[in-house]
Each structure stands twice: as structure tokens, then as C-alpha cells.
From TrEMBL, chain A:
The chain crosses the membrane at residues 80-99, 111-134, 155-177, 197-214, 226-254. It is a multi-pass membrane protein. It comes from the Bacteria. It is found in: Cell membrane. This is Phosphotransferase system, mannose/fructose/N-acetylgalactosamine-specific component IIC. It holds the Pfam family EII-Sor. One of its GO terms (cellular component) is plasma membrane. GO terms for molecular function: transferase activity. GO terms for biological process: phosphoenolpyruvate-dependent sugar phosphotransferase system.
Automatic annotation (TrEMBL), chain B:
The keyword Magnesium does not apply. InterPro entries: GatZ_KbaZ_carbometab (IPR050303), PTS_IID_man (IPR004704). One of its GO terms (molecular function) is transferase activity. This is Phosphotransferase system, mannose/fructose/N-acetylgalactosamine-specific component IID. It comes from Leuconostoc carnosum (strain JB16). Pfam families: EIID-AGA.
Length: 286, 280
């Protein structure tokens, strides 16, 4: 499997649309086209192997299922994961002769995607830095009262940043990377230490994605309880995600009503500290 | 400004403002001014409609040159609130620069917190989780499902937040960061926690190949089976908690944790703890 210049160029356009400050806006760009699952679909169509594309996308999506970018700090660049990582992983899966929907293909895809994604953060900082120049033009327009120019600054000029930091890197890396990946097969046998390690890393990496999300909601060990309840539902009771979500709603409702009861209690008995056991009884009355 | 007629932003202009935000809040992102230009472009139609002369327009636009960054989906509510405040200012409603910017600065932190855990942390993983199940085995169905469901929820959710913000004006602040807002945030964190637990157990698998064999080569201890009989998914859960501990308690960056996992994987493969069991 090889990637032609035309295919590489189309991948480059999708990379420009889908990155974190992407040209399709964040709802359609970053949160739709940038998700590896959707990237897998797009790459599958472009490279003409839908099944392998989706399978690689599914595998990589796991690593980044919970990619939060608090305050504009990124640990991985999704344009690189979805539009450089997935195409290269597809080539690798083909050249290693793996079954496209097997677990081994998935682990290979995860490792490759993460490697490319981590390196790809350079693209994110590159785009953001080049945008400073357009913002500078914007500030001068604001000073002069030339407000119409703001549209050019916000919607037009960033395409130039993306040409350099999304389009060109994707074009070159997917076109030339595919032959490098094919050469890898002869260099690294599947049962050797490097490949075994690569596959193991692929299985371990989703733990980081989940942990990043937990960081947002867990402060003290007690906050781990909902996580483990959900984990137990799925791992031991084999419930699917929708079922787990539905069950969690009842706990959310109790938590909300309890909190509201405590705060009304506090207002009524102004000054005196509210008693938890009192609140438990009150809760049923609301 | 001289006439006594009350100025009102037209529906058409509000729509325009919303769409400018929906599309352009992050397009010209930089580390210095993250969503500031997105904010400027979405306030411009409103300012142009409310003020006829250029000087008033310039004065109003200056307000929105202050730094802005939040979770953009839920953050639509803030743009809506300022649209209503700008309308009040145009009608001499006792609103000034400081009021608007104080409110913007006060809202963007809490909204980012709620938005990250509600939208990015819970909603998207849940839809993705469902979609992943549908695409298991290489079917495009899950990806298509995600594209449709997320974009409908994203667009109409943001639209709702924007217009609700405009409708409530500064009353939205109390709801968002008051007592009720806090209770909602805690309740959402519970859903988030459980869903993430479900996602982890469903989609993450860490397995060990470690086993002890007797003289005739038959294994008498398969570690993975023993661990699972204690608690299904024990090893997976342990790795996740370890990663959380390194990042949350030791302040190690995600990239360094990933590099550490590479080392763990290498050592694990060398001692026979991990073995993906592959061959050409």
C-alpha cells in the first residue's frame, strides 16, 4: 500500500480543517473531523480501504477518548494522530500482513498514532505562534476602527499558518512515510523485543487518556468511588455504556438534591452548621 | 443615542453573532489571545446594529479586546450574556466597560471547568463510547453515528446556551456560579466519574502473560486469571490509578508519563510480564 501525492494532499486539507485551532471551527473541526474515529472513516475513504481505516481509527480513538485541552495546553495533536498517524498505521498494518480488525493491528495502530501525535504537538505550537502575526494585523485594524478586517484575520489568514503547519507536514509525512513504514517490516521482526514493546505500549497508552480525564474530576481518593462503581458495572456486570450512564443519573439526582437541601438548610438555620443526618431525612421531602 | 426609542438587537443579528462564534471562536488561536478574536467577530454585528456612529462603535468594540478563553461550546452562554449587556449599555442601562469585562472574566473560569467536565469529559466520551461499539469490526456506522449525533447536539446545544444567555442577561451569572451551579457541577462529576469508569473497563485492557509452569511445562499459576478472580480488570484499574497519581499528585506531564510507559513496556517484555504473542 502506498499513498499518492493526490491522496496525501487531500489528507493535508483535512488536517488543516480538523486541528485544535482548526479551519472548520471546533465543533465540526476539532471535535468531529479531528476525532480518530471520524479520521479513520475519512482516511479509509481516501486510501480506499474503509475497513482498515475504521479499525485503526477505533484503536486510536481509545487513547484519546478523553482528550481535554485545559487552557490551550495539548499533550497530543489530533490532526497528526488522525491524518498522519492513521494513514501510516494503515500502511503498516498492510505491510505487516495483520488482519485489519484484529487486536494486533489495533495495538500497532495505537503505538504509531501516539508516536505521531506526540511529535505532532510541534505543529500545534507552530500554528499558534504563526497566528500571532495575524493577530498583530487584527490589533492594528481595531486601533484604526477598520473592523471588517477582523473577519479576514479570524477566518482567512490562519489558512496560511495551516498551509505551513498542517498541509505541508501531512503531505510530506504521509507520502514519504509510507515507504519508510514498509521498509520497517524487514528491519524489525514481529517477535523481536522492539515490536513486542511497541505493541505493549499500545495497550498501555489508553490508561493515560483515562487518567487525564480523571484528573479533571478526582481531587481526593473519595472521588474515585464513582469511577470504580462505573468500572465494576462494566467489568464485572458487563453492562454497556448507555446502561452505566442511565444508572449514574440516579446518583447525580441524589447528589444534586442533597446539595440543594443542605444549602436551603444553611439559609434557614443561618449561622448554625447544618447536620448531615438531618439532611438525609429532609431529602425525601423535596 | 439621542432618541428615547429603546434599542433592541434583531433576531437576525443575534443569529449572525451566534454563527460567528460557532465557527470562529478558535480559528485564529494563539497562546497570547486565545478566543479574543472570535469574541470580537461575534460582537461586531451587534455593535454595528446598536450604534450608528463610528465613535460609539469603536468604544464598544474596545471592551472586547480583553483576553478571553473558556470552554467554547458552553462558553456560548457568555457571549449571549454580553450581547444582552451591550444592549442595556446602548439604552443607558447603567452598564459600563468594567461591568461587562468583570462579568466576562468572572464567568470564563467556572464555565471552562463545567464545560470541560460536562462536554469534553462526559458527553463526547459517552457518544464516542457508543460509536466505538458500533464500529467494532470495521463498520463505518459508528463514525457516521458520532458525526450526526455530536454535531446536532453541539450546534443546537450551543445555540440554546447563547440565546438563554441573552435572555437571562446578568441573571445567568447566579445560576451558573451560585449554589445551584455548584450542585449541578457536583452531580455532573458523578455521572462523569461513572461513565469514565465504564469507558475504562470496556475499552482499556492491560493483560499480563506471566505464568509459572511445572516440570512438564503445564502452567500452574496464570497471574492474569488470579488477578481477575480477585476483581475483574484489576490490572487495568491499577495502571489507570498509577497514571492518575503520577499526573495529579506528582505533577508529571502526560508526555512524560507516556515515555515512562514505554520503559515499563520494555522492561515488562524483557522479564516476560508482557507478551503480545505475535508472529508474521
Amino acid at each position: 500500500m502506498t499513498i499518492s501525492w493526490v491522496q496525501a494532499a487531500i489528507l493535508g486539507i483535512f488536517a488543516s480543517l480538523s486541528s485544535m485551532p482548526g479551519m472548520a471551527g471546533s465543533t465540526i473541526g476539532n471535535y468531529t473531523l479531528g476525532r480518530p474515529l471520524v479520521g479513520g472513516l475519512v482516511c479509509g475513504i481516501i486510501l480506499g480501504d474503509l475497513k482498515t481505516g475504521i479499525a485503526a481509527g477505533v484503536a486510536m480513538q481509545l487513547v484519546y477518548i478523553a482528550l481535554v485541552t485545559p487552557g490551550g495546553t495539548v499533550s497530543a495533536d489530533l490532526r497528526a494522530v488522525s491524518y498522519i498517524g492513521i494513514p501510516l498505521a494503515m500502511v503498516a498494518i498492510h505491510s505487516q500482513g495483520l488482519a485489519s480488525t484484529g487486536g494486533n493491528a489495533a495495538d500497532l495502530a495505537k503505538s504509531m498514532g501516539t508516536l505521531v501525535g506526540t511529535v505532532g504537538t510541534v505543529l500545534f505550537y507552530g500554528t499558534a505562534t504563526m497566528n500571532l502575526a495575524w493577530q498583530h494585523i487584527g490589533w492594528r485594524a481595531v486601533e484604526k476602527g477598520d473592523f471588517k478586517k477582523l473577519y479576514v484575520v479570524d477566518w482567512g489568514l490562519p489558512w496560511i499558518s495551516h498551509f505551513f503547519f498542517s498541509f505541508v507536514p501531512t503531505l510530506l509525512m504521509t507520502h514519504f512515510g509510507s515507504s519508510a513504514v514498509t521498509a520497517l517490516r524487514t528491519a524489525l521482526p514481529m517477535d523481536g523485543i522492539p515490536m513486542k514493546t511497541l505493541f505493549t505500549v499500545g495497550a498501555l497508552l489508553p490508561c493515560v487518556g483515562i487518567a487525564i480525564l480523571l484528573k479533571q474530576i478526582v481531587d481526593s481518593p473519595i472521588d474515585f468511588i464513582p469511577f470504580f462503581v462505573g468500572f465494576t458495572f462494566a467489568a464485572s456486570l458487563k453492562l454497556n455504556l448507555v446502561s452505566v450512564t442511565v444508572i449514574s443519573l440516579i446518583f447525580a439526582m441524589i447528589s444534586y438534591k442533597l446539595d440543594m437541601a443542605i444549602s436551603t438548610n444553611k439559609q434557614v438555620a443561618s449561622g448554625s452548621p447544618s447536620n448531615i443526618t438531618d439532611d438525609d431525612e429532609d431529602e425525601e421531602d423535596i | 443615542m439621542d432618541n428615547t426609542e429603546i434599542k433592541k438587537i434583531s433576531r437576525k443579528t443575534l443569529n449572525k453573532s451566534f454563527h460567528h462564534w460557532f465557527y470562529g471562536h478558535l480559528t485564529v488561536f494563539s497562546q497570547e489571545h486565545m478566543q479574543t478574536f472570535g469574541y470580537l467577530t461575534s460582537m461586531l454585528p451587534i455593535v454595528e446594529e446598536l450604534y450608528d456612529n463610528k465613535e460609539d462603535q469603536e468604544k464598544a468594540m474596545k471592551t472586547y479586546t480583553a483576553f478571553f478563553n473558556t470552554e467554547p461550546q458552553l462558553g456560548s452562554v457568555i457571549v449571549g450574556v454580553t450581547a444582552s449587556l451591550e444592549e442595556a449599555r446602548a439604552n443607558h442601562g447603567g452598564v459600563d466597560d468594567a461591568t461587562i469585562n468583570g462579568l466576562r472574566a468572572g464567568l470564563m473560569g467556572p464555565i471552562a471547568g463545567i464545560g470541560d467536565s460536562l462536554v469534553v469529559g462526559t458527553l463526547i466520551p459517552v457518544i464516542l463510547g457508543i460509536a466505538l461499539g458500533m464500529s467494532d469490526g470495521g463498520s463505518p456506522l459508528g463514525a457516521i453515528f458520532y458525526i450526526i449525533v455530536w454535531n446536532l447536539l453541539g450546534y443546537f446545544g450551543m445555540r440554546f446556551a447563547f440565546f438563554k444567555g441573552y435572555e437571562l442577561g446578568d441573571k445567568a451569572v447566579g445560576i451558573l456560579i451560585g449554589q445551584q451551579g455548584k450542585a449541578i457541577r457536583k452531580a455532573i462529576a458523578t455521572v462523569g466519574g461513572m461513565v469514565v469508569g465504564g469507558v475504562a473497563a470496556t475499552w482499556v485492557t492491560v493483560k499480563t502473560s506471566f505464568q509459572l509452569t511445572n516440570a512438564s511445562g503445564k502452567p500452574y499459576l496464570v497471574l492474569q486469571d488470579n488477578l481477575d478472580s480477585v476483581y475483574p480488570g484489576l490490572l487495568t484499574a491499577a495502571f489507570i490509578v498509577a497514571c492518575w497519581w503520577l499526573m495529579a499528585k506528582k505533577n508529571i506531564s502526560p508526555i512524560k508519563v507516556m515515555l515512562l510507559l514505554v520503559v515499563v513496556a520494555l522492561v515488562g517484555v524483557l522479564v516476560g510480564f508482557f507478551n503480545p504473542g505475535l508472529s508474521y
